[in-house]
Amino acid sequence: MATTVRRRRRVNWGSNIVAIVFALVWIFPVYWMLNTAFKPRDEVMSETPKFWPSHLDAANFVAALAQSTFLRNLQNSLIVVLGAVLIAIVLGMFASAALTRFRFRGRKLILVVILAVQMLPATALLIPQFLVFNRLNLTGTYIGLILAYVASVLPFSVWVVRGFFLAIPVELEEAAAIDGAGSWRILFSVLFPLVTPGIIASSIFAFISAWNDYLTAYVFMSDSSMYTLPLWLTSFATPNGSTDYGAQMAASVVFSLPVVVFFLIIQRNLVSGISAGAVKG
């Protein structure tokens, strides 16, 4: 018995050490971003690495936010991200309801296709997607970028919300129907309120995916006045090779703050929502 306890303790110590090493590897870039952002500008490019600034300085943030395109890029990000989240959630809700509460030919095939698309890497679909959108004159437009984001997050949204629909007993619908409720009334008054945690989880995933995306926005948008915030971060590097690293790190902090704050507020709902939606087949 004592030998078993000692062996378990050794295993726990080993697991904890591995977890700490992985945590340090993941958190070091974030720490270095914050460290560089708050350094005085003359210490940013110092040949001797400084793991803590001599004093906290907001000059890098002033230089980043003083860029004339910041507000415009922020506005562009809000337009495409909120548009993509709204469309993806509405389509995901109705698609999940149709695939779980109604019986029609091809339903299983649609589920298989959604799952297959979810497994494909986004970069593999980017060029075919660009060619189709270009033929439809949607490249270089807000609606084109919004639809590209919707296409990338919709399979995940459908799959998560579908799990919540499957968990709802059919007897609830039957009771509502006996009381005289029609299909639309059952959807909006009975089913949709019960799948709210799944809707929140999928909307957060859609928001983070669209907010952080760089590659799709770079491929689809050619007009710099329509760039989103991830593309704005590249503006701190000039073609001659010089980069304002201090301002770029400060801009990265500003860019990350909405997602971090949003995630900290709702992370409990996100984890429980994804877990609950994932266990229903």
UniProtKB/TrEMBL annotation:
UniProt domain ABC transmembrane type-1: residue ranges: 74-266
GO biological process: transmembrane transport
Pfam family, one: BPD_transp_1
Gene3D superfamilies (alphabetical): MetI-like
UniProt keyword terms in alphabetical order: Cell membrane, Membrane, Transmembrane, Transmembrane helix, Transport
UniProt keyword Cell cycle, yes or no: no
Protein name in the entry: Carbohydrate ABC transporter permease
Keyword Membrane found: yes
Annotated TM spans: 12-34, 78-97, 109-130, 142-165, 186-211, 245-266
Family statement: Belongs to the binding-protein-dependent transport system permease family.
Predominant localisation class: membrane
GO CC annotation terms, alphabetical: plasma membrane
Biological source species: Gryllotalpicola protaetiae
Source taxonomy: Bacteria, Bacillati, Actinomycetota, Actinomycetes, Micrococcales
